[in-house]
Amino acid sequence: MNFESLLPIWSKLTPSQQERIKTSVVPRTLGKGAVLHNGSVDCAGLVLIRSGQLRAYILSEDGREITLYRLFEQDICLFSASCVMKSVQFEIMIAAERESEVLIIPPYIFKQIMEESAALANYTNELMATRFSEVMWLIEQIMWKSLDKRLADFLLNEATLENSNTLKITHEMIANHLGSAREVVTRMLRYFQTEGYVKLTRGSVEIIDLAGLEALSDT
Hints:
Blueprint: H1 3-6, H2 15-24, E1 26-30, E2 35-38, E3 46-51, E4 53-59, E5 65-72, E6 76-77, E7 93-96, E8 100-105, H3 107-116, H4 118-144, H5 147-162, E9 166-167, H6 171-178, H7 182-195, E10 198-201, E11 204-207, H8 210-217
Antiparallel strand pairs: 1-8, 2-7, 3-6, 3-8, 4-5, 4-7, 9-11, 10-11
Protein backbone atom coordinates (compact mmCIF):
# COMPACT_ATOMS: atom_id res chain seq x y z
CA MET A 1 0.00 0.00 0.00
CA ASN A 2 1.45 3.31 -1.08
CA PHE A 3 0.82 5.44 2.01
CA GLU A 4 3.34 8.04 0.82
CA SER A 5 0.98 9.21 -1.93
CA LEU A 6 -2.19 8.94 0.17
CA LEU A 7 -0.96 10.58 3.37
CA PRO A 8 1.30 13.58 2.59
CA ILE A 9 2.89 13.69 6.06
CA TRP A 10 3.76 9.97 6.00
CA SER A 11 7.52 10.62 5.95
CA LYS A 12 7.18 12.80 9.07
CA LEU A 13 5.78 9.93 11.12
CA THR A 14 8.09 7.71 13.15
CA PRO A 15 8.68 4.10 12.05
CA SER A 16 6.57 2.96 15.02
CA GLN A 17 3.67 5.20 14.02
CA GLN A 18 3.90 4.05 10.42
CA GLU A 19 3.86 0.42 11.52
CA ARG A 20 0.77 0.96 13.69
CA ILE A 21 -1.07 2.40 10.71
CA LYS A 22 0.05 -0.39 8.39
CA THR A 23 -1.05 -3.15 10.76
CA SER A 24 -4.40 -1.59 11.67
CA VAL A 25 -5.61 -0.08 8.38
CA VAL A 26 -8.75 -1.65 6.91
CA PRO A 27 -9.18 -1.80 3.11
CA ARG A 28 -12.76 -1.57 1.83
CA THR A 29 -14.47 -1.68 -1.52
CA LEU A 30 -17.60 0.47 -1.70
CA GLY A 31 -20.24 -0.19 -4.31
CA LYS A 32 -22.00 2.76 -5.93
CA GLY A 33 -24.47 4.20 -3.42
CA ALA A 34 -22.92 2.53 -0.38
CA VAL A 35 -22.96 4.70 2.76
CA LEU A 36 -19.55 4.87 4.41
CA HIS A 37 -20.40 7.25 7.25
CA ASN A 38 -23.84 7.89 8.72
CA GLY A 39 -23.68 11.21 10.55
CA SER A 40 -22.82 11.14 14.24
CA VAL A 41 -24.21 7.63 14.80
CA ASP A 42 -20.94 6.05 13.77
CA CYS A 43 -17.26 6.88 13.47
CA ALA A 44 -15.57 5.14 10.58
CA GLY A 45 -12.10 6.61 11.09
CA LEU A 46 -9.76 8.48 8.77
CA VAL A 47 -10.52 7.45 5.20
CA LEU A 48 -7.87 7.51 2.47
CA ILE A 49 -9.34 7.25 -1.01
CA ARG A 50 -7.38 5.05 -3.39
CA SER A 51 -9.85 5.29 -6.27
CA GLY A 52 -13.43 6.26 -7.00
CA GLN A 53 -15.58 9.17 -5.91
CA LEU A 54 -17.35 9.92 -2.62
CA ARG A 55 -19.99 12.50 -1.79
CA ALA A 56 -20.35 14.35 1.52
CA TYR A 57 -23.87 15.63 2.13
CA ILE A 58 -26.31 16.59 4.86
CA LEU A 59 -29.97 15.71 5.36
CA SER A 60 -32.73 18.04 6.49
CA GLU A 61 -35.45 16.91 8.89
CA ASP A 62 -37.80 16.39 5.95
CA GLY A 63 -35.25 14.23 4.11
CA ARG A 64 -33.94 16.82 1.65
CA GLU A 65 -30.26 16.46 0.75
CA ILE A 66 -27.57 18.91 -0.25
CA THR A 67 -24.05 18.08 -1.36
CA LEU A 68 -21.31 19.78 0.67
CA TYR A 69 -18.33 18.57 -1.32
CA ARG A 70 -16.95 15.58 -3.18
CA LEU A 71 -13.86 13.47 -2.59
CA PHE A 72 -11.73 11.89 -5.28
CA GLU A 73 -8.68 9.67 -5.72
CA GLN A 74 -5.95 10.52 -3.16
CA ASP A 75 -8.31 12.71 -1.14
CA ILE A 76 -8.75 12.21 2.60
CA CYS A 77 -12.10 12.11 4.38
CA LEU A 78 -11.60 13.75 7.78
CA PHE A 79 -15.16 14.18 9.05
CA SER A 80 -15.65 10.40 9.09
CA ALA A 81 -13.28 10.54 12.08
CA SER A 82 -14.82 13.60 13.74
CA CYS A 83 -15.54 11.58 16.90
CA VAL A 84 -11.87 11.75 17.89
CA MET A 85 -11.81 15.56 17.77
CA LYS A 86 -13.00 17.28 20.93
CA SER A 87 -16.25 19.23 20.70
CA VAL A 88 -16.55 18.52 16.98
CA GLN A 89 -19.62 16.63 15.82
CA PHE A 90 -20.94 16.64 12.27
CA GLU A 91 -24.19 15.22 10.96
CA ILE A 92 -22.53 14.57 7.61
CA MET A 93 -23.27 11.56 5.45
CA ILE A 94 -20.54 10.05 3.26
CA ALA A 95 -21.58 7.83 0.34
CA ALA A 96 -19.90 6.41 -2.75
CA GLU A 97 -20.95 7.98 -6.05
CA ARG A 98 -18.88 5.41 -7.92
CA GLU A 99 -17.33 2.10 -6.96
CA SER A 100 -14.48 3.14 -4.69
CA GLU A 101 -11.45 1.63 -3.01
CA VAL A 102 -10.60 3.15 0.37
CA LEU A 103 -8.25 2.55 3.27
CA ILE A 104 -9.63 3.25 6.74
CA ILE A 105 -7.39 4.11 9.69
CA PRO A 106 -9.40 3.17 12.82
CA PRO A 107 -10.36 6.16 14.98
CA TYR A 108 -8.42 5.03 18.06
CA ILE A 109 -5.21 4.67 16.02
CA PHE A 110 -5.76 8.03 14.35
CA LYS A 111 -6.35 9.66 17.76
CA GLN A 112 -3.25 8.06 19.33
CA ILE A 113 -0.93 9.18 16.56
CA MET A 114 -2.48 12.64 16.25
CA GLU A 115 -1.76 13.19 19.96
CA GLU A 116 1.84 12.10 19.45
CA SER A 117 2.63 13.71 16.10
CA ALA A 118 2.59 17.48 15.59
CA ALA A 119 2.82 16.85 11.83
CA LEU A 120 -0.42 14.82 11.78
CA ALA A 121 -2.18 17.27 14.12
CA ASN A 122 -1.23 20.22 11.92
CA TYR A 123 -2.24 18.38 8.77
CA THR A 124 -5.60 17.52 10.36
CA ASN A 125 -6.16 21.21 11.13
CA GLU A 126 -5.30 22.13 7.53
CA LEU A 127 -7.77 19.56 6.20
CA MET A 128 -10.49 20.83 8.50
CA ALA A 129 -9.87 24.43 7.40
CA THR A 130 -10.09 23.38 3.75
CA ARG A 131 -13.39 21.57 4.26
CA PHE A 132 -14.87 24.47 6.20
CA SER A 133 -13.82 26.80 3.38
CA GLU A 134 -15.66 24.58 0.89
CA VAL A 135 -18.78 24.59 3.07
CA MET A 136 -18.63 28.39 3.48
CA TRP A 137 -18.31 28.74 -0.30
CA LEU A 138 -21.41 26.58 -0.69
CA ILE A 139 -23.35 28.72 1.79
CA GLU A 140 -22.40 31.84 -0.17
CA GLN A 141 -23.60 30.20 -3.38
CA ILE A 142 -26.95 29.26 -1.83
CA MET A 143 -27.47 32.71 -0.30
CA TRP A 144 -26.35 34.95 -3.14
CA LYS A 145 -26.58 32.95 -6.35
CA SER A 146 -29.87 32.20 -8.13
CA LEU A 147 -30.87 28.60 -8.82
CA ASP A 148 -30.47 28.95 -12.59
CA LYS A 149 -26.82 29.92 -12.15
CA ARG A 150 -26.20 27.18 -9.58
CA LEU A 151 -27.82 24.62 -11.88
CA ALA A 152 -25.70 25.80 -14.81
CA ASP A 153 -22.58 25.50 -12.62
CA PHE A 154 -23.58 22.00 -11.57
CA LEU A 155 -24.17 20.77 -15.12
CA LEU A 156 -20.84 22.20 -16.29
CA ASN A 157 -18.99 20.58 -13.38
CA GLU A 158 -20.69 17.26 -14.03
CA ALA A 159 -19.72 17.40 -17.69
CA THR A 160 -16.11 17.94 -16.65
CA LEU A 161 -16.20 15.08 -14.13
CA GLU A 162 -17.81 12.67 -16.57
CA ASN A 163 -15.82 13.94 -19.57
CA SER A 164 -19.08 13.97 -21.50
CA ASN A 165 -21.85 16.41 -22.37
CA THR A 166 -24.44 13.66 -21.90
CA LEU A 167 -25.08 13.25 -18.18
CA LYS A 168 -26.76 10.08 -16.93
CA ILE A 169 -28.49 11.74 -14.02
CA THR A 170 -32.08 12.16 -12.85
CA HIS A 171 -33.81 15.35 -11.79
CA GLU A 172 -34.06 13.90 -8.27
CA MET A 173 -30.29 13.40 -8.10
CA ILE A 174 -29.65 16.96 -9.28
CA ALA A 175 -32.09 18.27 -6.67
CA ASN A 176 -30.27 16.30 -3.97
CA HIS A 177 -26.96 17.86 -4.95
CA LEU A 178 -28.38 21.38 -4.99
CA GLY A 179 -30.59 21.11 -1.92
CA SER A 180 -33.70 21.95 -3.92
CA ALA A 181 -37.01 20.26 -4.64
CA ARG A 182 -37.21 17.93 -7.63
CA GLU A 183 -40.17 19.85 -9.05
CA VAL A 184 -38.21 23.10 -8.97
CA VAL A 185 -35.22 21.52 -10.71
CA THR A 186 -37.52 19.98 -13.34
CA ARG A 187 -39.07 23.36 -14.12
CA MET A 188 -35.64 24.96 -14.43
CA LEU A 189 -34.34 22.18 -16.67
CA ARG A 190 -37.37 22.55 -18.92
CA TYR A 191 -36.62 26.26 -19.13
CA PHE A 192 -33.02 25.41 -20.06
CA GLN A 193 -34.36 23.11 -22.77
CA THR A 194 -36.64 25.85 -24.10
CA GLU A 195 -33.65 28.19 -24.26
CA GLY A 196 -31.63 25.57 -26.14
CA TYR A 197 -29.05 24.93 -23.41
CA VAL A 198 -29.91 21.26 -22.88
CA LYS A 199 -31.90 18.36 -24.26
CA LEU A 200 -33.84 16.26 -21.75
CA THR A 201 -34.48 12.56 -22.09
CA ARG A 202 -35.50 10.01 -19.48
CA GLY A 203 -32.65 9.61 -16.98
CA SER A 204 -30.25 11.96 -18.74
CA VAL A 205 -29.46 15.58 -19.53
CA GLU A 206 -27.52 16.41 -22.69
CA ILE A 207 -25.74 19.76 -22.83
CA ILE A 208 -26.37 21.34 -26.23
CA ASP A 209 -25.10 24.90 -25.70
CA LEU A 210 -21.98 24.75 -23.53
CA ALA A 211 -21.12 28.40 -24.13
CA GLY A 212 -24.62 29.44 -23.17
CA LEU A 213 -24.42 27.63 -19.85
CA GLU A 214 -21.00 29.13 -19.20
CA ALA A 215 -22.35 32.61 -19.82
CA LEU A 216 -25.32 31.94 -17.55
CA SER A 217 -23.12 30.66 -14.73
CA ASP A 218 -20.68 33.59 -15.10
CA THR A 219 -17.73 31.21 -15.45
